[in-house]
Amino acid sequence: MDGQLLESNLLRTLIDNLPDLIYVKDRDGRFLLVNASHRHFLGAESDKQILGKTVFDFFPKTLAELYHHDDLRIVTSGKAILNQEEPIIDSGGRKRWVSTTKSPLRDSEGNIIGLVGMSRDVTQAKNAREERDRLFALTPDMLCIAGFDGYFKEINPAWEHTLGYSKAELMASPYIDFVHPEDRSATIAEALSLVENESTVNFENRYRCKDGAYKWLLWSASPFSETGLIYAAARDITERKQSEDQLRRANAELEHGEKALREAMEALRASHEELVQAQLQLIQAEKMDSVGRLAAGVAHEVKNPLAIMLMGVDYLTNHCVMGNENASSVLRAMRDAIHRADVIVRGLVDFSANRQLEEQVQDVNPVIEQSLVLVKHELLANRVSLTTNLAQSLPPVKLDVNKMQQVFVNIFMNAAHAMPDGGVLTVTTYAKELRSADRDEGSRKGDRFRTGDTVVVAIVEDTGVGVPEDKLLKIYDPFFTTKATGKGTGLGLTVTRRIIELHGGTIDISNREDTGARVTIMFKAREEDL
Amino acid sequence: MKRILIVDDEPDITLLVKLNLELTGKYVIREENDAADTLAAAREFRPDLILLDVMMPTMDGGDVVVELKADPDLRHTPVIFLTATVLKEEVDAKGGMIGGYPFIPKPVSVEALIQCIESQLGDGKVEDGQPAGA
Question: Nearest 10 degrees: CA dihedral of B41, B42, B48, B54?
Answer without folding.
Answer: 90
